[in-house]
């Protein structure tokens, strides 16, 4: 870190976010200087294609297509690593640290995959990594969990961490349109990628939850080990039934400490209407953290987008330049193998909660008795039932018997019992097809 | 600041919050040490009455009734200043800094009154003051505005900053009971002081807004210059009419940058239902900050209470011990006379917004024409009107003419025009008594 009155930075990767970061650094040097106590100077911006238009005028000599120009320049203190993907992003980050640079990054997938290696190497080299922009964009959740709530044992953390999914679910709920049509709209509006798989299948949220779980609970979690389901293929019928029961469906990422074990999950979840989490619309993110001293703290903001993400990146650059990040990084020893894990992940079957089941059943006497009998055998008690008498909802099963939808909301039960009950219910003659199952909050 | 592996702290003032801070420091030394990278050691706790029960067992030798025992002890690094009121709290803080101690405080009134003097003296002495607990208790808004959102020009900041008022208004709204009865309930439940004047008349919220305005906008504001009204004497009728128009009434503190000038106000405000701010219940606080890069960020949490406030105090102690606070304090130069104000307060008459008016009018032809005529003269256009035909609402004015309530919601107008219009309307023969006027958001 330069101790002079100027911190020189380079951006690697001038996509949407990179251009936003450059704009803040170039157009608003007064505010970064005021907060950093020194000038923050954009020395280089590395791109693959020098001729691609980027909607921003960079001073002469800043733009380059050579990473080496950054790595070989000892005057550059901080590398803003905005390359996506795992490789060569990982190699570039390692080389930059070896060249004596501190790192600010927004690459959540890279941290979720290689966090242990990268943070260990940073400590060996006496360098720091800041990553506020990697989770929830404009919500400064990394700083809040690492610093502002440091007097607390965090008891739970749950959030809407994927804006694309939330946009799709909110639109389906408000407009009553189907999944495929809504994905197309999200793509037209720029809220979804051409291939939105990682967003809608829960991968992105699980990677973010793995990072937050490390910071909040001291757990080292492989995001692949987090039980997850996505909103891909969500049936509008479930949004309608949830609404009638007083709930909305949200793609919720949850981490909860129970008896020293950490319950983790990502999936569509029924959230009670009128709670702040249920009212999160559009592409917004939200996170609710419960600390044993502070109680519940709720954060809501834009989870992605050029300037919200750039805001997080530049705050990290300021914290790095002014010297706060190195203190935090060295003290907390993120992802250190020398620090024993403070919580281990709980076996999925032991998770407990309330559940929503939707199934199609034969419309004749004894059906409800058969199903409630199975639930009783698994010690699952029922809090609400919706059984349609509406003829418009009648289909016929393969045997030609009319079927109707049946919705059951349970009291608290274990995930293990819920799974076994679903299997048994799916095996009943009176049940047609699979059971849709989601957890319920609030 | 001690550079050893231990930071010694003393608490001055062992009321509810002091006991909570002591509990966190004594019972949870592991977590403070993990975040501070060193032991945080409670050396002394100063009380007026050594014999008063405090619900916490302190190690032998910690409790004392002598402030000098703290000030004269060079091993004590940080003084946690939890005395209320202005004097002797101010003198004690000055003496502690002169004795070489850094300060963590929750005393918002002291900072609002004497911030300039105290911060200037701290800088002269090379000391730091941390004050997260002074505003919004469990919501870490000081750190978020000072650090996390540092890449932004903050455009507006509005919040529910007084939990007592919010509890009273929410209860009146939900239960339909009157102001006086609700205040008694709040006192029974411990949400309101025996004399709740400073909470319900807007003073407390104005003091907090003055502090936040300094951090967010670089404005030096005397809280007395903030136009303010309280919820004392709020009429349940207005909650009802607001509800019918799709709004709730909240005691809202607002700071908004317009053309380089800062619009400040504290008062009961109509907030649109379904927005996060309108759904803040009980004694919760909430703050919505809009930054030019990050967009809107919304925070919600407990604004007061023993452990939420202690959480903020202990986070400050950790930040002080680990070295982040001194960096922030020295860089940002809070309340420095050497730093020119970046925004000045706008003349109240220039504020613009939508308004809610409620008045009693004579129930005969021409009344509405007379009133809307006055509004038109002042270039104020109307968005909604509720005029009751309900006989149950009919009263009689002094002249024996039946009167009914009339509610008008306007489109955007200036505060100056709204005031003049209200004066003119109150002078009309068809109008009985004063006009109730509140701003409208959303």
Automatic annotation (TrEMBL), chains A, B:
Residues annotated for NADP(+) binding in this entry: 12-19
EC number: 1.1.1.3
Any one Pfam family match given in the protein's UniProt record, by short name: ACT
Keywords: Amino-acid biosynthesis, Methionine biosynthesis, NADP, Oxidoreductase, Threonine biosynthesis
Keyword presence, Oxidoreductase: yes
Keyword Oxidoreductase: yes
Biological process terms in GO annotation: methionine biosynthetic process; threonine biosynthetic process
Superkingdom as given in the UniProt entry: Bacteria
Active site: residue positions: 208 (proton donor)
Residues the record lists as binding NADPH: 108
Protein name (database record): Homoserine dehydrogenase
């Amino acid at each position: 870190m330069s101790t002079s009155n100027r911190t020189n930075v380079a951006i690697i990767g001038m996509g949407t976010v990179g251009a936003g970061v450059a704009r803040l650094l170039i157009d608003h040097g007064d505010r970064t200087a005021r907060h950093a106590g020194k000038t923050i100077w954009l020395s280089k911006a590395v791109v693959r294609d020098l001729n691609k238009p980027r909607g921003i005028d960079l001073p002469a000599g800043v733009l380059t297509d050579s990473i080496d120009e950054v790595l070989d320049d000892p005057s550059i203190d901080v590398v803003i690593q905005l390359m996506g993907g795992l490789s060569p992003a990982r190699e570039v980050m390692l080389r930059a640290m070896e060249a004596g640079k501190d790192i600010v990054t927004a690459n959540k997938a890279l941290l979720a995959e290689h966090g242990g290696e990268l943070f260990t190497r940073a400590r060996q080299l006496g360098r720091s990594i800041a990553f506020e922009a990697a989770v929830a964009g404009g919500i400064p959740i990394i700083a809040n969990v690492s610093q502002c709530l440091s007097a607390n044992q965090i008891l739970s953390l749950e959030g809407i961490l994927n804006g694309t999914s939330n946009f799709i679910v909110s639109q389906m709920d408000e407009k009553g349109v189907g999944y495929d049509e809504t994905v197309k709209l999200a793509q037209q509006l720029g809220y979804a990628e051409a291939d939105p798989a990682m967003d809608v299948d829960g991968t992105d949220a699980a990677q973010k939850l793995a990072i937050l779980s490390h910071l909040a609970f001291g757990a080292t979690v492989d995001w692949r080990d987090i039980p997850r389901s996505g909103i891909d293929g969500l049936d509008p019928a479930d949004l309608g039934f949830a609404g009638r029961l007083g709930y909305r469906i949200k793609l919720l990422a949850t981490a909860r400490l129970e008896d020293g074990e950490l319950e983790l999950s990502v999936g569509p979840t029924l959230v009670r209407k009128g709670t702040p989490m249920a009212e999160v619309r559009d592409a917004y993110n939200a996170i609710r953290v419960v600390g044993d001293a502070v109680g519940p703290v709720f954060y809501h903001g834009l989870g992605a987008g050029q300037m919200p993400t750039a805001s997080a990146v530049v705050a990290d650059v300021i914290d790095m330049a002014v010297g706060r990040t190195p203190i935090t990084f060295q003290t907390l020893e993120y992802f250190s193998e020398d620090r024993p894990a403070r919580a281990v992940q709980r076996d999925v079957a032991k998770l407990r909660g309330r559940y929503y089941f939707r199934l199609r059943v034969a419309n004749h006497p004894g059906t409800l008795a058969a199903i409630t009998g199975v639930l009783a055998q698994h010690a699952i008690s029922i809090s609400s039932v919706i059984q349609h008498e509406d003829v418009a909802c009648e289909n016929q099963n393969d045997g030609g018997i009319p079927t109707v939808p049946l919705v059951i909301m349970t009291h608290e039960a274990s995930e293990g019992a819920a799974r076994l009950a679903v299997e048994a219910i799916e095996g009943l003659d009176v049940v047609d097809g699979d059971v849709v199952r989601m957890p319920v909050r609030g």
